[in-house]
């Protein structure tokens, strides 16, 4: 009689095999979680970092309980008075890593009767948006700590008299941008001798503009997610025997993109990008909130007009909008007033705008017509450092023009340990740049590993079902319609921005009334395009969409208010809360190698979902 125990492995019932495999995966997961728990146990608390109790209380009120790795490492050195050069991935908490020790140092100066020239701490950030964000963060900490410290922000658009007024109250902290520096120093608004702590964020270019005026005794802190700066060169300029921190978190080594952001891509022609983004959003296979990056302002308006025909309301953020509007759009998006934001990032926008302007000039020579010309704000930037709250998905509608651009864009999702994903639409023209990004992220040792994997939840069939409608609507979004909407939107925003500036200062709550995702199209969207009829929906993609919605609901229910680190939540989501993660069965330890049932070319498999997906 045959003994089942001695049966060759191949003869074992496939269901038993599946179950064993699942058990193995579960065991592996438990080991990883145990390792992570042990790692967490080794973590230091804010008390152990000798942070002032007032700051710790303020952090608790903000829902922040434990320091992140960069905070644990950098805070003690900064408190010691050391120069620090730190590179840590996006969303890892670099802002508090320098703000907390900075405030603590200023607390001790508060009591001293000796009058110091002001401001003593100088925070240099790459964009106005980041300037506003850092200023808001430092102001809220000061308020929560109830200390007599004053912070101000200066931007280059401010008249000199306003700059002088802002500095007249002897602020201890100044937050500003590189573009503002020449103005501050040239007109004697600021005394560089006063600066004894300089913080620069994303430092390469920023520092050159202040190199000649920073006093030698000044403590310098340089923070970045992507820098390639030569520390040796910087040493000669500013740094005194700096501590160089390159944060290696767990198994992530030096990867600049957090491992909690799953990266996907879809291969499609440039013309088919509208069709694909429609499928992603309309079939709800990506989770909200969603930040969509494009490379030109016109493309942003084209996309907005296209999507609104299908009942998808989006807001637009770009460097030609007035500053008030930009800050307001960011506030509303962060507050969750709308789910889709189409953004043009700084670098790509500047270069493309130059091209556009050149193009316009040439045309203008032939046609002597008055044309709408963009005026861009040199201090605009939504990619580096801006803390978009609860963005789950970043979509690269256009691919960024550099690896750094990609890292900063993707870093807007998955901030502070939350899970996130990115989907890049890659056309044949963009393939070379995309390969560069992939090989950079894979690193030297791991060249062949797929860090960015094909998006698994959209079948070819699902996309094709929408083609007729998408192409029909795309034709109606003409160049003229785009240009008119862009000019109209800018006019509206300028009027609103001016009219409402003083009103909002007096009535901040009224800001909520001005929604930024309003329709731009002159003709109202036709009702039948708002819903996709049953017969057009591919059943497999529909199944995936249901999972995404379920996961969203589950995440909503278990998410804690206050924004602090939530271990329970973290574990739950790791165990399958995020369908994109659950679906990527071949994943490495942290589920990075993407979904099954995918073709190497970035398209979903024609078969659609895998066995595992169907079971899910
Ligand atoms: N110790 C902490 N615990 C939980 N959340 C934190 C902690 N420290 C910071 N955060 C939150 O993490 C988010 C990201 O922080 P921050 O903006 O400082 O990241 P960053 O490293 O500067 O990212 P980037 O390089 O993209 O600018 C913020 O919402 C912040 O409030």
Automatic annotation (TrEMBL):
Which Pfam families does this entry report, sorted A to Z?
A: DEAD, Helicase_C
According to the UniProt record, where is the region Disordered? 1-46, 349-370, 555-616
Q: Does the keyword 4Fe-4S apply?
A: no
Q: Which EC main class describes this enzyme?
A: hydrolase
What keywords sit in the KW lines? Answer: ATP-binding, Helicase, Hydrolase, Nucleotide-binding, RNA-binding
Protein name per Swiss-Prot or TrEMBL: RNA helicase
User: Where does the Helicase C-terminal domain lie?
Assistant: 279-463
Gene Ontology cellular component?
Answer: nucleolus
**Which ranges belong to the motif Q motif?**
44-72
Record-stated family: Belongs to the DEAD box helicase family. DDX56/DBP9 subfamily.
UniProt keyword Cell membrane present: no
Instruction: Write down the PROSITE patterns for this protein, in alphabetical order.
Output: HELICASE_ATP_BIND_1, HELICASE_CTER, Q_MOTIF
- The DEAD-box RNA helicase Q domain extends over 44-72
Which Enzyme Commission number(s) are on file for it? 3.6.4.13
Question: So which residues are the signal peptide here?
Answer: none
Q: Which domain of life is it from?
A: Eukaryota
Q: Name one GO molecular function term.
A: RNA helicase activity
Please note every region of biased composition (Basic and acidic residues).
Answer: 1-32, 352-365
Domain annotation Helicase ATP-binding: ranges: 75-245
- Name the reaction it catalyses: ATP + H2O = ADP + phosphate + H(+)
């Amino acid at each position: 009689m045959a003994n089942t125990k001695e049966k060759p492995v191949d003869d074992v019932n496939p269901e038993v095999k599946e179950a064993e495999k699942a058990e193995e995966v579960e065991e592996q997961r438990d080991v990883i979680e145990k390792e992570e728990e042990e790692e967490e146990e080794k973590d230091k608390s804010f008390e152990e970092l000798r942070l002032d109790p007032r700051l710790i209380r303020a952090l608790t009120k903000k829902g922040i309980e434990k320091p992140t790795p960069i905070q644990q490492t950098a805070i003690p050195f900064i408190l010691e008075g050391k120069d620090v050069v730190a590179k840590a991935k996006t969303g890892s908490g670099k802002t508090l890593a320098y703000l907390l020790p900075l405030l603590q140092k200023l607390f001790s100066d508060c009591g001293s009767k000796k009058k110091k020239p002001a401001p003593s701490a100088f925070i240099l950030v790459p964009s106005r948006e980041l300037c506003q964000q850092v200023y808001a963060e430092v102001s809220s900490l000061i308020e929560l700590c109830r200390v007599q410290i004053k912070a101000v922000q200066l931007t280059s658009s401010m008249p000199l008299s306003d700059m002088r007024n802002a500095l007249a109250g002897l602020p201890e902290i100044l937050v500003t941008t590189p573009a503002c520096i020449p103005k501050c120093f040239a007109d004697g608004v600021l005394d560089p001798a006063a600066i004894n702590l300089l913080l620069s964020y994303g430092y390469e270019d920023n520092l050159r503009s202040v190199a000649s005026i920073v006093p030698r005794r000044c403590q310098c802190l340089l923070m970045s997610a992507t820098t390639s700066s030569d520390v040796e060169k910087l040493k000669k300029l500013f740094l005194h025997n700096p501590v160089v921190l390159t944060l290696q978190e767990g198994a992530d080594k030096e990867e600049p993109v957090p491992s909690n952001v799953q990266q996907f891509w879809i291969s499609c022609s440039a013309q088919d990008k509208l069709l694909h983004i429609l499928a992603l959003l309309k079939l709800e296979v990506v989770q909200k909130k969603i930040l969509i990056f494009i490379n030109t302002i016109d493309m942003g308006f084209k996309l907005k007009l296209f999507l609104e025909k299908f009942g998808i309301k989006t807001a637009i953020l770009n460097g030609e909008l007035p500053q008030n509007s930009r800050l307001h759009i960011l506030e509303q998006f962060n507050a969750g007033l709308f789910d889709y934001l189409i953004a043009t990032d700084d670098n790509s926008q500047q270069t493309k705008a130059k091209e556009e302007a050149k193009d316009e000039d040439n045309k203008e020579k032939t046609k002597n017509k008055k044309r709408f010309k963009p005026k861009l704000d040199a201090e605009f930037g939504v990619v580096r450092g801006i803390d978009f709250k609860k963005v789950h998905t970043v979509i690269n509608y256009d691919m960024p023009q550099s690896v750094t651009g990609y890292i900063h864009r993707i870093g807007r999702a998955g901030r502070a340990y939350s899970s996130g994903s990115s989907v890049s639409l890659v056309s044949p023209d963009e393939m070379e740049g995309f390969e560069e990004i992939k090989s950079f992220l894979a690193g030297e040792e791991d060249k062949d590993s797929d860090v960015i994997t094909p998006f698994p939840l959209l079948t070819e069939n699902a996309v094709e079902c929408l083609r007729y409608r998408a192409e029909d609507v795309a034709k109606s979004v003409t160049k003229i319609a785009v240009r008119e909407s862009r000019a109209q939107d800018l006019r509206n925003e300028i009027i609103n921005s001016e009219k409402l500036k003083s009103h909002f200062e007096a009535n901040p709550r009224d800001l909520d009334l001005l929604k930024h995702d309003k329709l731009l199209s002159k003709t109202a969207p036709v009702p039948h395009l708002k819903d996709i009829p049953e017969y057009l929906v591919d059943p497999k993609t529909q199944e995936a969409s249901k999972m995404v919605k379920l996961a969203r609901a589950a995440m909503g229910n278990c998410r804690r208010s206050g924004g602090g680190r939530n271990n329970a939540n973290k574990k739950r989501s790791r165990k399958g809360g995020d369908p994109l993660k659950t679906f990527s069965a071949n994943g490495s330890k942290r589920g990075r190698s993407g979904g099954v049932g995918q073709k190497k070319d970035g398209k979903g498999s024609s078969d659609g979902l895998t066995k595992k997906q169907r079971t899910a």
